[in-house]
Amino acid sequence: MNLKIIISILWLGSMFTFAQNQNELSSQIEKLNKIYAQSMIDNDTKTMMSLYTNDVVSLPSYQPMIRGIETLKSLSEQVENSEWKTTSFDMKTTDLIPAGNFVIEIGNYKMTMTGPGVPDWSDEGKYMTVWQKQDDGGLKIKIEMWNTDLNPWLQMQQSEGEQK
């Protein structure tokens, strides 16, 4: 067999393996995102925390950086025990970037919440999650970051204008 044919066969084989791995990663992350979303709706901190590494770093909108599972768990339990409830949460992955033992997920979210004196409050935005591959083949969240597409200051100004 000539060398060009062998290289072509190896290259095509590696492309098939890459596409297969991408599909498997996409399916695995979609399943984990459904568990995450349902745990938010159910206010189920225990299930949600099972998706994170012990040394997680969380970078939420309008809040300081959160480091470590215990700190994240404590803050999540405060929300769980508050009157704020997530009534819908949807995540849509737009990009997956494998990087060694990590997978970078980029996507968009939409959610609705209710709280004291607030009937329904909707938000939408974008997120980035860095998933870390575990020894058992699973994935856990190592780093997460999200922020809203909605400008709260503009919304407040519009609301004030409507009240005048």
Q: Brief overview, please?
A:
By secondary structure, the chain is of the alpha+beta class. Helix content is 41%, strand content 40%.
Gyration radius, to the nearest Å?
20 Å
Category from helices, strands and their pairing = alpha+beta
| Main sheet summary | 6 strands, mixed
User: How many separate helices?
Assistant: 4
Order of helices and strands: HHEEHEEEEH
Low-confidence stretches: 14-20
Q: What's the rounded overall pLDDT mean?
A: 86
Q: Indicate the percent of residues in helices.
A: 40-55%
Spatially, the strands of the biggest sheet line up as: 2-1-6-5-4-3
Beta-strand content bin: 35-45%
Describe the structure.
There is one protein chain. The chain has 164 residues and is of the alpha+beta class. Helix content is 41%, strand content 40%. The protein has four helices and six strands. The chain has helices spanning 3-41, 45-49, 69-80, 152-163, and strands at residues 52-59, 66-67, 85-99, 102-115, 118-133, 139-148. The longest helix is centred in the first third of the chain and has 39 residues, at 3-41. The model is unreliable at 14-20 (pLDDT under 50).
Descriptors:
164 residues; alpha+beta; 6-stranded mixed beta sheet
Topology:
Blueprint: H1 3-41, H2 45-49, E1 52-59, E2 66-67, H3 69-80, E3 85-99, E4 102-115, E5 118-133, E6 139-148, H4 152-163
Parallel strand pairs: 1-6
Antiparallel strand pairs: 1-2, 3-4, 4-5, 5-6
